[in-house]
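Researcher: For the annotation table, I need structure tokens for LysE family transporter. Please keep the output clean. Sequence:
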Amino acid sequence: MDALTWLTYVGVIFALIIFPGPVALLCTSHGLKFGRKQATATVLGGVAASLVLMMISSLGLGAVLATSETAFAILKLVGGAYLIYLGISAWRDTTSLEVASPSAEQAPPMPANKRFQRGFTVGISNPKDLLFFAALFPNFIDVSQPQLMQFMILALTWLLIDFTLMSTYAGLGASISRWFQSPRRYKRFNRATGGLFMAAGGTLMASNQ
């Protein structure tokens, strides 16, 4: 893989990842609730999900999924239902924002493994990402060269940029946490977050592609 191809890839995936989706929304929410440091577990969960999806696509399962309408529909329904569940949970959340204080970082109400699991589950809930990786990577791989090393470069580049940008979203959430110390504002934030998750889940389930 030459430098120009790699730089083109970096530009493409940067534009794709920075566009806010469910994982970015979750990272922002956890950054606001728990602080940037604690939200790192959420970010790592989302990054791990991306890695798993890349590996599945590299095994050719993405292509299989593209030809199986039944399997794709089932995965869409499961993923969409989970996002809607998160949306309902956020909408009904009645906790205060005290968890975003410095002391809360020492004893967070949601353990790190739960935050990692939440990030991973949201990240892996969209079966379209399997098709996305299956369609993206071949455009940047030279079949005349060893493909494993090229795949590793593409994957590591994605993971690094993904981690950096999702950490930025978490930092953004932490930076605005003071503004949401008001219970009324925090309730509105939870409702807005819940509404966006439910909309994302509904869109995924209703999508025909």
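Researcher: And a one-line annotation?
Model: Residues 47 and 135 are 19 Å apart (CA to CA).
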